[in-house]
Structure formats: C-alpha cells, structure tokens
Amino acid sequence: MRNLRYYYHAKIKEFMRQSEAEIVGIIHSNDISADTRIQQSNTWQIEIAILKDQLSTLEEGELLFEYSIPRMGKRVDNVVLFHNIVFLLEFKCGDREYRASTYDQVYDYALDLRNFQKESHDKLIVPIMVSTNAPTVENTIVNRERIIEPLRCNAENIGSTIQSVAAQFTEPDFDYNEWVYSEYLPTPTIVEAAQALYCGHNVSEITRSDAGAENLTVTTDEINRIIEHSKANHRKSICFVTGVPGAGKTLVGLNIAIQRSNVAEGEHAVFLSGNFPLVQVLQEALARDSVQQAKQNGEKITKKEALRSTSAFIQIIHKYRDSFVGNDNVPPERVAIFDEAQRAWTREMISSFMATKKGVANFEYSEPEFLISTMDRHDDWAVVICLVGGGQEINTGEAGLPEWFDSLRRAFPNWDVYITPQLNDEEYRRDREWQDMIGGLNVTENEKLHLATSVRSFRTPDLAAFVKALLDIDVEEARRLYDKIKDKYPLFITRDLQTAKDWVRSKGQGSTRYGLLASSGALRLKPEGIFVKNEIKVANWFLNSKGDVRSSYALEDVVSEFDIQGLELDYTIVAWDADFRMTEGHWTYNSFVGSKWQNINNEERRLYLKNAYRVLLTRARQGMVIFVPQGSDVDITRSREFYDGTYNYLKGLGIREV
Q1: Residues 357 and 215 in one domain
Q2: Are 160 and 257 contained in the same domain?
Q3: Which of 310, 579, 603, 643 is the most buried (most CB within 10 A)?
Q4: 203 and 169, same domain (yes or no)
Q5: What does the angle CA 401 – CA 402 – CA 404 come to, to the nearest 5 degrees?
Q6: Which of 412, 390, 410 is closest to 401 using CA atoms?
Q7: What's the DSSP call for residue 488?
Q8: Contact status, residue 514 vs residue 528, Cβ threshold 8 Å
C-alpha cells in the first residue's frame, strides 16, 4: 500500500548515503498520480541535489518530501525535523526573486499544521521560502504564536539558516515519528474544498476525521446508499439534509455531485444553488485553479474555457429551472442537489417573475414543485437532495421548507421522502404542525442525514449555539456559551471601527482572509464609511489577494448577508446598525425609508432581519469583532440610544472589549 502521508521519509544521514536515482525512485513509487510530469521529476532531482549539499552538516534530524497538507489538498515540498523544530521548505526552482505568493503559500502551510495537526499545536514551526537563484538576504526572526514569519533562502544558505534558527531556540524533545503520523483534523473553507474535490480528492481526504465531525463522511455515505437503493429499485427519492450553520451541507452536496457524475452509467449529477454569489465565487475559484493547474503541468487553457467546465458542474438554479419551462425535456442529470433549498421561491414570487421577466403567463407552480417535476420526468429513477439550513431564510418570496412537503403531497405522493428528526423544529417548520407537514407522504426518518457539528468554526463547535442564544435573548445560555468559547474563539466588541480593522489585520498571517460585514438594511453606517448599497463583484472580494483594493483584505467594501451566505472568512468585522436593535430587553425591527427609521411589523420581514444577523454572526471561522457605532447627538437617524441598548446587551453577555 502506497504511503500518501509523504512520498519520501528518511533520517538525514540515510538521505545523504542514498543515491539520487534511489531517492527519486522512492518518491515516484509513492506518487499515485497517473501523470507526473517530467518537469516535476526534474524539480525533485534539483531539490535532492541542493538538499544533499545543504543538509550535509546537520548531525541529526529527518527529511520528508511532499508532506501532505490535507485541508488544501496539497503537499509541502520538504519538511526538515531538526533540533525539535519543524522546518517547512517550499522550493521555487529557478526563481530569481522572493515572491509574495510563495511567502503566503508556505505561511499557510505552517498555519494549517498549527491549527489542524494534533502534534503541531505546541511545536515551533519555521516556514522557509527557497527561491533557488535569488540573492542572499538577511532574515529577521519574528515569532508569532509559535510560527516564525517565513524566512527567505536561496540554494546556498538553507543549511546555515536552519542551523542559525536552531541555535536560537531550545525546544523540548518530541518523537519525530509521532509528528509525521499525527492525527490531522482539517476543516477547509468551501472554496478550498471545492477546488480539492474538483481536482480529484474526496471528502475524507480534506476534512476532519475526529468523532465530532466524522458525520460529513457518514452523511455522504448514507446519501450514496439512498441513491443506490433508488437506482436498484427504480424509485424516485428526495432527501432533506439538515445541519447547524457551518456544518458542511454545501461540502456534502459538492462531494456527491462529483462522485455521481458518471455519465457513462447514466448518473450525471448537478449542484444547483439559488445563491448567486456562492455560485459566482465557486465557479470563478475553480476556473482560476484549473488555469493555474494547467500552467503548472505545462499546458494552457483560458479562463473562459475553464469557466465553461465549472459552470456545467455548479449552476445557478434559476438557469436550470428556466431551461425546462414550456417543454417536456428530460434532464440529463439523475441526481440533482439543491443547495439552501429553504430559499426556493413561493408560487406567487416565481409566477410574478415569470410573467414580468420571462413573458410566461399563468405559471402555476412554486419553485419546489417545478424543480421536483423536472426530475420526475425520468421514467426510471431519480434522486433530489435538498440541503436545508434552519433559520436562514433572508429574502422576500422564499418559501421555506414546508413548501417542499406541500409540493410532494400535491403532485408527487409516490416519491420516497427521507428526513431528519431535526426537521421537527420551529426554525424549519415555520409555525406548521409537524404531522400536517409530513402527513400522507412515504417518509423515512434518518438521523445520518443531519450534520450536528459546525466545521466552519473549527476552534469551537459552539459558535452557532451561542449566536442562537444571543438572538433568542436567552441570556444565561448565551453567557454560559461565551464563557465556554472565549478562550478558543476570540470574539470581541468595540465602538471604534479603526480598532476593529487593526484587530483583524493583526490576525492576517499568510492568506488568512478577513473582511467587513453588515446587514443589507444597515443604511446608517454610511457616516462610518460603510456603504452597504455599493455594488461589488463578490468573486473579487472573496478571491483576490492582498494589495488589491477590491478584495476583502482592503476593508473598504462591505458585503451583506446576501453576498456571504454559504461562504465564510477566517476573521470578520460585523458592523451592527440600528435596523436590528435592543430596546428595553427586546429586539426592535427597523427599516430606513427616505430620511427616517420605520418599525417593521410584518412577522415574515422580522424573521428575515433576525436571520440576516444570524448569517452575519456565523461567517467567521477563527474569530470575530462586533462593531457597534457610538451614534450621534445631532443626527436623529443615528441617535446614541439606537446603539447603546445593543452594545450594553452584548457587553452584558460577557463579550469583551478589544
């Protein structure tokens, strides 16, 4: 069995004794990729020659080639374990300069090991970027939370740099072998996960394996079992997958879409979402990654060509829907995954849209009913997978979960319906009686379809529960949960926006991503320099690098709940306006119209506003600062009392000032 944790591992003394041909042979024997390029093989040979020269004076230690970084689906070129320090080497053979992209790349590897590999939590990690033909520069040792800021080396000073660092630190002994085989508990962002899955990795390779998060694999396996059962028994089935915010519903959906995309066996699958920003970001991310991967393999494809492919795999749900209006075409897909299914439109909403935008009169379906009807056109079998988030409807015209069941009862009572016990919760039912919602349907309850643990906030599984308690004004529970998470997950409050910006920037190691969030109704943050009505290209905001003013890093553009639902950042600033404010112990719901705030009395609109803040407060993977403005003594639209109540409530929960 080939060892996938690394391609080569030996004591440095053994490495020095082995021939180049022998080492290259071992690396190739462990490289399971079918198309390793001559260019890559040549790179390994260059690295071996350089390391034989540079490590010859090290009296002890171990060396690894291509050590796995599962969260990214990538490998660090070399690991040197020396004097109980972990050195990470990222080679750029032939480079004559030290690139910012390499700096971030090797820094990210160090952060991933520190955050996700059990045996690295307390180790000193030293990332080194090796631009082989670059000039020698003087390195400054900066130790940030047990990671040295990346050092710059060329082919001539790797060994001396390692020796110099080792001389400055005295680290406790540890078992190198235990480190090499340490448990790795990765939690990828949805963008990283999509890229890794699209490149051929599976969900078990890039996600955590601990008990708390293992049901990502359990849920995936259960859905595959239902698909196989439906196929073998000529059944049409619909599965409702539930989960807490950040539990990985979208990740499961993407994984299934890739696994079941076997056109030869009639199993073409498609991932559909009504979340346009999510689709835009994922399509763009996969396209950019495809172009980069092709470049590394000596090939060339244009981003336009790459986008054609990624757009077939991940589609905006409305384009899929419209392609089946007014015809009897049978979808090529046997498996359709609907992300954020609770956001599908009501009959009134879609009928109005079809009449005014598409010229289709008398459209008599709700969106759930029409989407199921397209898959019902298959004569044999079909499976619909609905990924459902509770308490996340945020827009007018979103039908919520009950409409899917009403549609099944009206038109598809013979479909097999797989549900989770968690669906019987007010966040999903929306005032409907449970038996009234599922009555008359062929329902099977299956606990394996629920994702109970957040993998977004990998520092703590309790963030979603804390946010729920905060929004529900369950003060004692919110205080208890804050005390539980505060040392693992930094969560602060401030009344100064610059302080908030300084805080998130201080966390921005490597490509750790941070950004500014606010609700779409936060119109009186404008005097603070936060313009929620400013249109942005979300793909640039989420994907572009530091130095690009369009990116989230610039902290100039703000995104709302509509832009960020289904996505995440490492650190966030959540700017809290007077649209949702605490007044005398209860929330008041407000909309800014013209020149003044107006009360929102409609219960559905109140729900959307509360859910908007739920979305905003659950987007940060590693930490968050909440910015509540001071308000104004002269501007009645920003009266201090509009903000003081919210600030005092949050402080009363124990949230600390930054």
Answers
A1: yes
A2: no
A3: 579
A4: no
A5: 75
A6: 390
A7: T
A8: no
Burial 5-40 (b: 16+ CB within 10 A, else e): bbbbbbebeebeebeeeebbebbeebbeeeeeeeeb
Q: 349-377 burial string, b = 16+ CB within 10 Å, else e?
A: bbbebbeeeeeeeebebbbbbbbbebbbe
pLDDT band with cut points at 50, 70 and 90 for residue 59? confident
Among left, alpha and beta (phi > 0; psi -120 to 50; other), residue 83 is left
Confidence of residue 211 (pLDDT cuts 50, 70, 90): very low
CATH of the domain at 262: 3.40.50
Judge if 226 and 106 occupy the same domain: no
- Using one digit for the tens of pLDDT, what is the confidence trace for 281-330? 988 988 888 888 888 777 889 988 888 888 877 888 888 898 999 999 99
- Contacts of residue 389, defined as CB under 8 A and 6 or more positions apart, other chains included, come to 242, 243, 245, 249, 340, 342
Task: Clarify whether residues 245 and 144 are in a common domain.
Answer: no
Residues 429 and 505 in one domain: no
- Specify whether the CB–CB gap between 451 and 219 falls below 8 A: yes
Q: Which amino acid is at 389?
A: G
What is the structure's pLDDT at 203?
A: 58
pLDDT at 35: 53
Task: For strands 143-144 and 147-148, give the pairing.
Answer: antiparallel
Predicted local distance difference test score (pLDDT) of residue 206: 57
Residues 445 and 467 in one domain: no
Which of 451, 482, 498 terminates a domain? The answer is 451
295 vs 374: which has the higher pLDDT: 374
* Of 86, 45, 40, nearest in space to 62 by CA: 86
Burial environment of residue 524 by CB neighbours within 10 A (0 to 12, 13 to 18, 19 or more):
buried
Give per-residue burial for 304-334: e unless 16+ CB within 10 Å, then b.
Answer: eebbeebbebbbbbbebbeebeeeeeebebb
Q: Which residue has the tokens 């060329």?
A: 154
Q: Strand order of the sheet with strand 586-593? A: 580-583, 586-593, 596-599
Query: How far apart are the C-alpha atoms of 4 and 412, rounded to whole Å?
Result: 46
The domain containing residue 126 runs over which residues? 8-180
Instruction: Based on the fold, state whether residues 432 and 343 are members of the same structural domain.
Output: yes
Tell me what the pLDDT averaged over the chain comes to: 90
Q: How many domains does the chain have?
A: 3
Query: CA neighbours within 13 Å on the CB side: how many for 387?
Result: 28
DSSP, res 160? H
